[in-house]
Design a protein that fits this description.
Blueprint (H helix, E strand, L loop, with lengths): L4 H25 L5 H8 L9 H22 L3 H29 L10 H22 L2 H14 L9 H12 L1 H8 L4 H20 L1 H4 L1 H21 L1 H7 L2 H8 L1 H15 L9 H54 L1
Helix pairs in contact: 1-3, 1-11, 1-12, 1-13, 1-14, 1-15, 3-5, 3-7, 3-11, 4-5, 4-14, 4-15, 5-6, 5-7, 6-7, 7-11, 9-11, 11-12, 14-15
Amino acid sequence: MTCEPGRLIALDGLRALAALIVVFAHASYAIAKSKLQALTLFHSPLGVFVNASGAIHVFFVLSGYCLTASALRGTTPAELARFYLRRVARIHGPYVAAVVIAWVASAWLYLLPQGWTLRVEMVFSLLLPFLVMLAVRAHWSALVLVSLSALAVSESFSSSCFALDFSLGIALFLERDRLAAALARTRIATSICGVAGVWLLAIPMYTFLEATSPRLSTVVSAAGATSLLVAAAHGPGLRRFLAWRPVAALGRVSYSIYLLHFTVLALMTPLLDRRVGLAGGVAFALGVALATCAVAPIGHRAVERPCIRAGNAVCAVLARRAGVSLRAARSA
């Protein structure tokens, strides 16, 4: 079972928008502002564009959705090992390269790239085949209930807080055909999903829910990310926009955008006037985003692709050796 090519292109576009929101949010943190100015920014219409927390939930729901197809193919220990090898090569190789780049760019003094989200991604990459197995053998609702139980006993910002995101992504993939059939009957349903997704993702930020009730905030954000993914995968209008070549192209290099934007931000921050106003702040954030988008394709071609090819090559060697061993055992 694989994701449909057209949908994957649209999901690349959704990943691009989430990555740019993270860039804008971190750029806004670098701008000196009073508490009142910060409150005004994050509770204005511009708040949607700096909602990094919501964007992270979108990333994790997307990961659950897109990795489920690979996990479904990993039914044997050898296939499971190859799944893990590909994930390690995909995540850790580019991250190590980004750390080295940041170290050099910061004049050997400190490291810049953030890594906590990649820790979560790796933890659930390891768990995902077993989560998919539970969803298939029992029901995806059982997986969601287990995730909610983990959330109920978890500490704030621990990896288990994000189990719900991955579980909902898995559920969406398993139910994608039924969803497509149901949503095809009325186009307005996907539009409602898109609007509801943005609204739910914004609620924790606008209402201080993240601070007052982090577990409820996680549930609301996960629901918003799930609703937005439904709109991206099944809504004709939004899917066309997200599959638009420039947007989809950014999606394909979104991991490099995420890894490199902190280094770009750190290098550009000294150029920022401390008395910058709203217009200057927006211009600075756009400048950081443009500079990051300019260097991200280089990182994608020079680091990401070789890491992916290396992971696939190792998996191919293991598959050949496993095939030879199996034939030898059968002939014995």
